[in-house]
Specification:
By secondary structure, the protein is mainly beta. The chain is built from two helices and six strands, in the order ββββαββα.
Length: about 120
């Protein structure tokens, strides 16, 4: 049986993208972006939620992503393999974090979005 665990998420970048190196010398770049959604619950009340997604690339692709100078507030679309990690928060309440091993991405800088032009397709 084949399992399909590929997904696409879109949202605004939370902090500037930076290239770093792991202790074993592997290069990694992470992009954290907020995916907002809203819906109306059964009582007719509008509910708004934000899910943070942490996407990562490794090695040469990590360097390429870091060199694009993506900043907080830029719009980012990431596609890749999904991982969910469950944990207890500081109040001992269950939570989960969502990670995405990037396969492809697109972005539009805040400056380009403010100017009304199309941005970068990668």
């Amino acid at each position: 049986m084949n399992v399909f665990d590929n997904a696409t998420f879109a949202g605004n970048v939370g902090k500037d993208v930076v290239l770093r190196e792991t202790p074993n010398g592997k290069k990694v770049t992470e992009v954290s972006f907020a995916v907002d959604r809203s819906y109306t619950d059964k009582d007719g009340k509008k509910v708004e939620r934000t899910q943070w997604v942490r996407a990562s690339l490794f090695d040469e692709r990590a360097e390429t992503l870091a060199n694009l100078n993506i900043k907080a507030g830029d719009f980012f679309i990431g596609n890749g393999t999904v991982e969910v990690q469950a944990f207890l928060n500081k109040n001992s309440q269950p939570e989960a974090s969502l990670s995405l091993k990037l396969e492809s991405y697109r972005f539009r800088t805040k400056a380009v979005a403010d100017s009304g032009s199309e941005g970068n397709d990668l």
